[in-house]
Specification:
- The protein has 501 residues and is α+β, with helices and mostly antiparallel strands.
- The protein folds into 2 domains: 141 residues, Nucleic acid-binding proteins (OB fold (Dihydrolipoamide Acetyltransferase, E2P), Beta Barrel); 257 residues, 2-Layer Sandwich (BirA Bifunctional Protein, domain 2), CATH 3.30.930.
- The protein is built from 15 helices and 20 strands.
- The strands form 4 sheets. Strands 6, 10, 11, 14, 15, 16, 17, 18, 19 and 20 form a 10-stranded mixed sheet that branches.
- Helix 6 packs across helix 7, helix 7 crosses helix 15 and helix 13 runs antiparallel to helix 14.
- The longest helix is centred in the middle third of the chain and has 23 residues.
- The two termini are 38 Å apart.
């Protein structure tokens, strides 16, 4: 195993490796194998050896026969002996290649093996005199020849742009990235099992919508050639899931992608993963309790307890979580009482007195939302539910009992991140039509995030939807919390990036 050529360009290094590939083929070997019969994953081999050590004696030292495969990630050659590190998805192990053990011809052929190649090796797992668990190879084979060198800073690829654009290099170079996405899979699995155990049925609804709905957002537009019609990538599955409640299902959920044609920042990606559920005969207060139970269950199982650290701050998710109405939170953190007025200009003056900029096109609801984002959310470090939102902000939520200016809506916040949204679902078709008409008015006035009028959905409500509560949880943001990731791009395998010029 010779070192890479120094001070060479990337293409020169590639050509150097292609020459090695041709030498391998000239020897009658195939550098892109079809299969390899592993006996163990690397972690399994290490565990098997450590178990054997417990029964070992001076006359019968521990050893485990193994055939291991993985990517070569480092090497140290000296004379007739070479040590290398082999990594698979489960971990890393040292491999010893000795000329006497593998044979002179095979040992000489090691010069055509590079860091980054996949190899398979057979031998015995033992400890070296230095105490390191090592596979002492008696034979090996090249499984895949890597034609491009790994990043120069292999042990910790740090360039963010490269890590996101070439996630495969990030995964190779940074084992913690694999761990982050294992944690994401764990979050989804825990959520799915928790819901199934409580009688929720997992369903799939369309990704292509004739009318975008279910959230306030700008959609992506595409075109179906056969029907010669525009369609929209879904911004939320909400209206289809509630059609299922109309049809007779009582507890449904979906975990899948949503698409919103919006800005990109540390909390937003145009393509993201959402879990949405709907439960008949439930309201937002009962669902708030269930949401708290679900989130704490996931946190405890992923973080190992209710307390965890996010970006240097200790978060205590132990129940019960703090609960405040939205207007209580604004009074506490912004020092103004927006509940005392329903008039747009008055609300604007109050917001400006608190140091919040108000654009001329903002209505009352948008002003309240802006104050919340600027003054309240930055203070919501510990888990908190905000509830009872203005009707202007919630066109799909039921009016609050006793106060029709508000809706029965809540949002959970943790470490300043909004990780969910929930309502007592509006099931009055006449009220829903009026709300949609108002959204249409806003759209015609220039608000391209306002919702569309969906006649079929109103027809479904006229058939009758029982009292229902619904919840959406952002999988990406929840994973951010539990992997201490500052950006949503860290928890999406292939995030959207600005095109290269």
């Amino acid at each position: 195993m010779t070192d890479e050529l120094h001070h060479s360009t990337e293409e020169e290094l590639r050509q150097h490796r292609i020459a090695k590939l041709e030498r391998i083929r000239a020897r009658g070997d195939e550098p892109f194998k079809y299969t390899f019969a592993r006996t163990h994953a690397i972690a399994e081999a290490r565990a098997s050896f450590e178990k054997a050590e417990t029964a070992a004696t001076p006359d019968a030292p521990a050893e485990t026969a193994a055939a291991l495969a993985g990517r070569l990630v480092s090497r140290r050659g000296q004379g007739k002996s070479t040590f290398a590190d082999l990594r698979d998805e489960t971990g890393k192990i040292q491999v010893f290649f000795g000329q006497r053990q593998v044979g002179e011809e095979a040992y000489t052929a090691l010069k055509d093996v590079d860091i980054g190649d996949f190899i398979g090796a057979h031998g015995m797992v033992r400890r070296t005199r230095a105490g390191e668990i090592t596979l002492f190879a008696d034979r090996y084979e090249i499984l895949t020849k890597s034609l491009r060198a790994l990043p120069e800073k292999y042990h910790g690829l740090t360039d963010v742009e490269t890590r996101y654009r070439q996630r495969y290099l990030d995964l190779v170079a940074n084992p913690e990235t694999l761990d982050r996405f294992r944690a994401r899979a764990r979050v989804i699995d825990l959520m799915r099992r928790w819901l199934a155990d409580r009688g929720f049925l997992e369903v799939e609804t369309p990704m292509l919508h004739p009318i975008p709905g279910g959230a306030t957002a700008r959609p992506f537009i595409t075109h179906h050639n056969t029907y010669d019609t525009d369609l929209y990538l879904r911004i939320a599955p909400e209206l289809y899931l509630k059609r299922l409640i109309v049809g007779g299902f009582e507890k449904v959920f979906e975990i899948n992608r949503c698409f919103r044609n919006e800005g990109v920042d540390t909390r937003h990606n145009p393509e993201f993963t959402m879990m949405e559920l709907y439960e008949a005969y439930q309201d937002y207060l009962g669902l708030m309790d269930e949401t708290e139970e679900l989130l704490v269950h996931i946190i405890e199982n992923v973080a190992g307890g209710a307390a965890f650290t996010y970006q240097g701050e200790t978060i205590d998710a132990a129940r019960p979580w703090k609960r405040m109405t939205l207007f209580e939170a604004i009074r506490e953190h912004a020092g103004i009482d927006l509940e005392a007025t329903r008039e747009r200009d008055g609300a604007g003056r109050l917001a400006q007195s608190a140091g919040v900029e108000v654009a001329p096109e903002m209505g009352y609801g948008a002003i309240v939302d802006e104050v919340m984002a600027a003054k309240v959310r930055p203070q919501l470090v510990q888990p908190t539910f905000l509830y009872d939102y203005p009707i202007e902000l919630s066109p799909l939520a039921k009016k609050k009992r006793g106060n029709p200016a508000l809706t029965e809506r809540f949002q959970p916040f943790v470490a300043r991140l909004e990780i969910g949204n929930a309502f007592s679902e509006l099931n009055d078709p006449m009220d829903q039509r009026e709300r949609f008409v108002e959204q249409v008015r806003l759209r015609e006035a220039g608000d391209d995030e306002a919702q569309y009028l969906d006649e079929d959905y109103i027809t479904a409500l006229e058939v009758g939807m029982p009292p229902t509560a619904g919840l959406g949880i952002g999988i990406d943001r929840l994973t951010m919390l539990l992997t201490d990731s500052a950006s949503i791009r860290e928890v999406i395998l292939f995030p959207q990036l600005r095109p290269l010029k």
